[in-house]
Amino acid sequence: RYAFVKVAPARSFVYGVVAGTKGQPLPGGLVTAESRRLAAVTDPNGQYVLATPPGAVTVVFADPRTDDRTTRSGQAGPAPLQLNVSLSPTPPSVHSTFPADGAADISLSSAVVVTFTEAIDAASVTAESVRLLAGGEALPASLSITPNRRVVVLRPSQLLASDTGYTIDITTAIRDLNGRPLTAAVRADFRLEPPP
After folding, report:
1. Under a CB-based contact definition with an 8 Å cutoff, are residues 141 and 125 in contact?
2. pLDDT tens figures, 166-181
3. Nearest 5 degrees, angle CA 27-CA 30-CA 185?
């Protein structure tokens, strides 16, 4: 005779209190174990409990309303691991541009697309804060922002010229919904190659 026993995988816990950027308990904060599909939400007092496998664990703490976040690591074992944190203000930055820096073979009718790491203030998106330059001069263009406020699309008023270098110029006048400016200005150069 044989007996089959299903053994539950080992589990540990991370717990603690999450405070906002001003030191107040953060209700509704998101707590996730990096590289694992595990998450918890803080209660009205900023407290959380997160189940995690034993071993080294990296935990990301975030305020979904402001995108402020911080990361902590520790060793989860038989005893629960306590991690109390205060979030750090997280200013916006540029996640990507299209065309990317150094790109070539771009279509003459391409729009410029700038993706940010968090939602930005639409009022900060102007012809001075997001520009397309040719020979150092700004080209006439229209600007739009997607409903999630993370993506800005710049459409030149005329077709781009072949065999010409262009620069996407994004300044620190861009701000997030909390008024924090872009971490640094960004420039991305690309070139339209001449037709074969």
Report:
1. no
2. 999 999 999 998 899 9
3. 110
Task: List pLDDT tens digits, range 112-130.
Answer: 999 999 999 999 999 999 9
Model's pTM, two decimal places?
Answer: 0.70
The structure tokens listed for 159 are 């077709």
E strands present in the chain: 12-19, 30-33, 39-41, 47-52, 55-62, 69-76, 81-82, 85-86, 94-98, 112-116, 130-134, 137-138, 141-145, 151-156, 164-170, 186-192
Q: How far apart are CA 184 and CA 118, in angstroms?
A: 15
DSSP state of 120: B
CB 94, CB 186: distance < 8 Å: yes
Residues 103 and 156: their CA atoms lie apart, in Å, by 17
The string of DSSP letters for 63-102 reads -TTT--EEEEEEEE-SSPEE--EEPBP----EEEEESPTT
| Residue 190 CA to its chain's centroid (Å) | 23
The single-letter DSSP state of residue 111 is: P
